[in-house]
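Batch manifest, entry 17 of 40.
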Amino acid sequence: MTTLPTTDLQEIAQKLKARQQELLHEIATAEADIEAAAQTQEALDPEELAQRQEAKEVRLGEIARDRNELASIGRALARIEAGDYGVCVACGKPIAKERLLARPESTHCIACKAELEAQA
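Output type: structure tokens
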């Protein structure tokens, strides 16, 4: 069960939803850029084609990263709705408010996150 006040939860939910909209816009823009580049490849020399392919791969990587972040945001919003937001999934202790304000999609407290990173 969350230990954050309702006003904090509302602030965090607003941040998450705003970031969600930014990411959706970024994904749409990247996909449009890829499509536009694909339409104009027929008259390019091999070097230009290679550069475009590299740019496409970078954009696809950005899209994948943005989709992963969108999924994390969706899970955080679901935890807010379920009433278990702000609780570490590893130890069950509350996640510090400061951490949640800085990284609203956090699922681990600082101690558990540090332990996970040390194991990696």
